[in-house]
Amino acid sequence: MANPLFDALFSPLKDRSTAFLVLPDGAEVSGAAFHSLICRFAIALRGLGVMPGDRVMAQVAKSPEALALYGAATALGAVFVPLNPAYTDLEVTYFLGDAAPRLLICDGSRRAGLQGAVPPSVGMQTLNADGTGSLTDMAKGQSDDFPPVARDADDLAALLYTSGTTGRSKGAMLTQGNLLSNAEVLARFWQFTAQDVLLHALPIFHTHGLFVATNVALISGAAMIFLPGFDAPAVLHHLPRATTMMGVPTFYTRLLDAPGFDSAAAAHVRLFISGSAPLLAETHRAFEARAGQRILERYGMTETNMNTSNPYLGDRRAGTVGFALPGVDIKITDSGSEIAQGQVGMIEVRGPNVFNGYWNLPDKTREDLRADGFFITGDLGMFDADGYLHIVGRQKDLIISGGFNIYPKEVELLLDAVPGVLESAVIGLPHPDFGEAVFAVLTARPGVVLDTGLVLTALHAPLARYKHPKAAVVVADLPRNAMGKVQKNVLREAYGGWFASPVTDPSRPE
Ligand code: AMP
User: Fold this and answer.
1) Which protein residue's CA is at the shortest distance from atom 4 of ligand 1?
2) Would you call 181 helix, strand, or coil by DSSP?
3) What ligand 1 atom has the least distance to the C-alpha of 321?
4) Which of the 8 DSSP states describes residue 434?
5) Which atom of ligand 1 is closest in space to residue 303's alpha carbon?
6) What is the pLDDT of residues 15-72, one digit of tens each?
7) Has residue 367 got a pLDDT over 70?
8) Ligand 1, from 276, 347, 412: best to mutate by most atoms within 8 Å of Cβ?
């Protein structure tokens, strides 16, 4: 009987004597050894009562064993629920209540703290960063063979909580078919083969590292250099063996800052891919100048898997996320109606990649997922004359000041181009007169002391007056979440009272 996702991704490992994972010290885990690990874990999970459809929640460090858990849950027809290890006990308590898993697997160091939060009906086992733990002990000595449980493409494979830069995290229900269709499309589109070696330094609790990177490598028979996180010297050490790398924009800026990163260091890599957050056009250009390669930027989200990609063979354009992937429909809408090319509106997406809805949130699902299958992404964008999609911001980022709409990205692009400015984040803050006022948070290039007044003056010529930030501050770093996304909610909170009272302090530029 068939289990489409397991059959396509994990079953082929069984007969593979060559490396599937290359570990930080250069040791290799063959496909067959990894397949055995999956089977032993699946048997252990079944022994703990995990049935098809049950949620298996894992808050564990990145390791081969942690990845094997994903395979084991898939083999059992269970729903895999990976969580960011950075979540506190209190946050995990929320996820436990929401997902109602059969089992929580956590790091041994978290066991005592989480014990009180785990209801009696939920089992608890440990898996540590070094692969040891109570679950590993139970898996020891089990058979190397486990026939996967029959599943349908419409059955749930994973519940992935949105990384949530605003509001509460929601569980996105992803089916086997969602994951499989996207893996097939991406592997073909980016020309992955069994000869590829993917440098994997992403976390595996998020769609980028778990599904985009891992599923694409698995379905194409590629190997992965499996690093616990992004460490520039380690990445430089392993790059000569890699043929591809996937990363968030921060990986690329850090590589550019790393001594020794040049075209020779990147020579063996055929494809660098970026996503999860906007890649600055400047980073794109600097990377090409240094490494002699154009980064391929793509766009997706937890709920939809990947939607667009710059072309593999054609022109990879900085500041754009390329074209709709094969099988994916994208339209730009205003109040639900499609609008003309060149206009900014809501990005809506439909395709086999789009999720089934939010776990336990039927009203929210109906709000965001239309009856005709289009998902309202919350991202604002436009298609340019050549058909490339540009992301302009999130709907929640949209600033309405004195009745006028301002897209932060437009202002950020201009601020980023001002000499001395490294990066910017533009937000709307409550304002007694305008409702919201535009506010800029800047970081400076090394060694530069920014004069915010001069920076803002540089916007006068290119930008309509209503879009001008009414004030700006300089900070050391912009707050980012684990995937490198700027947390504008944190900035809105920190500076929320800025315009609350009339500005009398002359050091505050008006
Ligand atoms: P997540 O669900 O954590 O993957 O976050 C998805 C969100 O990240 C999208 O809705 C976009 O707002 C943003 N995002 C992903 N890829 C890109 C990209 N290439 N450029 C700009 N924003 C992106």
Assistant:
1) 301
2) helix
3) 19
4) T
5) 2
6) 999 999 999 999 999 999 999 999 999 999 999 999 999 999 999 999 999 999 999 9
7) yes
8) 276
Per the DSSP assignment, residues forming a β-bridge with 369 are: 375
Partner residues linked to 120 by β-bridges:
none
> Which among 63, 72, 60 is positioned nearest to 9, based on CA atoms?
72
**pLDDT tens digits, 144-202:** 999 999 999 999 999 999 865 555 789 999 999 999 999 999 999 999 999 999 999 99
275 lines ligand 1 (CB under 6 A): yes
**Over 50: is that where the pLDDT of 508 sits?**
no
> What is the rounded average pLDDT of the residues 309-329?
97
Which residues are within 8 A (CB) of 6 and not within 5 positions of it... i.e. 6 or more apart?
Answer: 71, 74, 75, 148, 151
Is 321 close to ligand 1, i.e. is its CB under 6 Å away? yes
Predicted TM-score (pTM) of this structure:
0.89
Q: Specify the residue with its C-alpha closest to ligand 1, atom 23.
A: 277
Confirm or reject: Cβ of 297 under 6 Å from ligand 1: yes
Q: Percent helix, strand and coil across the chain, each rounded to 5?
A: 30, 25, 45
Pairwise CA distance, residues 478 & 484, whole Å: 10
Of 28-32, 117-121, 128-132, least confident by mean pLDDT is 117-121
Q: What is the whole-number distance in angstroms between the Cα of residue 276 and the centre of ligand 1?
A: 4
Distance CA 376, CA 275 (A): 19
Distance, in Å, from the CA atom of 261 to the CA atom of 292, rounded to the nearest integer, reads 11
Spatial separation of the C-alpha atoms in residues 412 and 392, rounded to whole Å: 10
Contacts 24+ apart (CB under 8 A), 454-457: 455/415, 455/418, 455/420, 455/421, 456/509
Question: Is residue 83 predicted with pLDDT exceeding 80?
Answer: yes
* Helix and strand totals (H; E) in the chain: 16, 25
Angle at 411 between CA 405 and CA 412, to 5 degrees: 130
Give yes or no for residue 332 having a pLDDT over 80. yes
- Of 159, 309, 353, 391, which is best to mutate to test ligand 1, by the most ligand atoms within 8 angstroms of its C-beta? 391
**Whole-angstrom distance, CA of residue 82 vs CA of residue 157:** 12
